[in-house]
Design brief:
Alpha-Beta Plaits; alpha/beta; Aminopeptidase
């Protein structure tokens, strides 16, 4: 994904789309980004120490007590207003410049995962069966670094900056819990941003407008229990599988295709778009005294396709011999899906490209199709925002930052990249 060809193509794309324009104005002083980089350099070693402390003391979702206490203490030392215990162990830090302006939020997830896989670094987890194998220790450290930089530049800033440290991202529950606990009565951001470690080089970030991940739902087709059950099951399974538009022999199913320079996520010719697929291993039949249900796990890259599935299936069944037996066609499981605001995505990439170079940005074209997601999506339902991937790999050293992989580790230089890029981004968004 970081080949010279892709970088050159990306630079051309930015120029053609107007993301990088010599005529683009900015109200922020050019020197502030040099100050950001200087401050980041000064605190870098201390941030590495903080990250390693989080890594050695990981806490699973819902039990992030020590982590949240460390976060709150650090923010208080910087002069932030701090609120704790939001949606569990959630922490929010507020930096109010006292000057009229925009309100920008940054979110970081703080939980670790249950894992019995041995750690691969010298500063290994001290908590048996728990490990930061997804990089949330790095995400949290970067957010603290940005908070430090923002505090150091407070006199030059306007508006308000919020930092949301969210528990329980892994089970996809923490964001909603914080919102339900009154998060957006406490803070009122105009825009929200966040990032996550990904298996790219440490100088690289990537994102795309609108959906970054496929969405997933559980489809349920229920019928009256009858002597036709076996025929109904066969018919329903055939109907469900007809929704899939990806051939079994397609390279779509090969995980290595995601990074293929010709057909992968970063290619304009990506095969990871306009797809719907069915997890055949998760088609289940459930029976009760009066009802039979056929449930299937479905993924799609297009919201419009999901919206069309229920009326489409109802219509087909109404024209079949099983019409009178039908009870309902519905989704029984839905989740929020990341949706990057198109204009904010373009503007954000323009800011970072101008300051740090378009060669360090991968503009994605495809939509991830491996069941991943992030409950940052629940914030985006309330506030427009952008979610980024941040590279944490050093391929020459054999460091691969693939979340959830047994050999997951990060090149800690990604902390420097994240603090620099995203501090500059927040400054630019405050003034634009």
């Amino acid at each position: 994904m970081t080949s010279k060809i892709i970088r050159l193509t990306l630079t051309v794309q930015f120029l053609l789309l107007g993301f990088v324009s010599c005529g683009q104005s900015t109200k922020s002083e050019p020197s502030i980004h040099a100050k950001i980089q200087e401050q980041t350099h000064e605190i870098f070693d201390s941030l590495v120490t903080i990250r390693r402390d989080f890594h050695m003391n990981p806490e699973v979702s819902g039990k992030e007590k020590r982590t949240s206490e460390k976060i709150a203490k650090y923010l208080l030392s910087l002069g932030y207003e701090v609120k704790r215990g939001i949606g569990g162990y959630g922490v929010v830090g507020t930096l109010d410049t006292g000057k009229k302006g925009k309100r920008i939020a940054w979110r970081a997830d703080i939980d670790a995962m249950p894992s019995d896989i041995p750690d691969v670094v010298e500063f290994a987890s001290k908590n048996e069966g728990v490990r930061h194998i997804c990089g949330h220790d790095v995400n949290t450290t970067i957010a603290l670094g940005i908070a430090n930089v923002m505090a150091s530049q407070k006199e030059e800033l306007t508006g308000v900056v919020y930092f949301i440290f969210q528990p329980s991202e892994e089970p996809y529950t923490g964001a909603k819990a914080m919102i339900d606990d009154g998060l957006f009565e406490m803070i009122t951001p105009d825009e929200i941003y966040g990032s996550h470690i990904a298996p790219m080089a440490t100088t690289m970030i990537s994102t795309k407008p609108e959906w970054m991940f496929a969405d997933y739902k559980v489809l349920n087709i229920s019928f009256k229990n009858s002597s036709k059950n076996e025929s109904i099951i066969a018919y329903s399974k055939e109907l469900i599988m007809s929704l899939q538009n990806v051939e079994p022999s397609s390279k779509f199913w090969n995980p290595q295709s995601l990074s293929d320079p010709n057909i992968g996520l970063a290619s304009p010719n990506t095969i990871f778009k306009n797809y719907t697929f069915v997890n055949q291993d998760r088609i289940k039949v459930e029976k009760t005294e009066n009802e039979i249900s056929i449930k299937a796990y479905i993924g799609s890259s297009e919201k419009e396709k999901f919206d069309a599935i229920l009326p489409q299936l109802k219509q087909k069944i109404s024209n079949s011999k099983f019409a009178k037996s039908l009870i309902e066609v519905e989704y029984t499981y839905e989740r929020a899906n990341l949706y990057n605001d198109k204009t904010l995505t373009q503007n954000s990439l323009a800011h970072i490209a101008q300051i740090y170079g378009a060669e360090n940005i991968i503009l994605l074209h495809g939509i991830m199709a491996d069941y991943r997601g992030d409950d940052f999506a629940y914030y985006q339902e309330k506030v427009p925002g952008v979610y980024f991937y941040l590279g944490g790999s050093d391929f020459q050293k054999g460091i691969l930052s693939m979340p959830h992989a047994p050999n997951f580790q990060v090149d800690e230089n990604c902390i420097r990249t994240g603090v620099n890029y995203f501090s500059s981004l927040i400054v630019e968004r405050l003034f634009n």
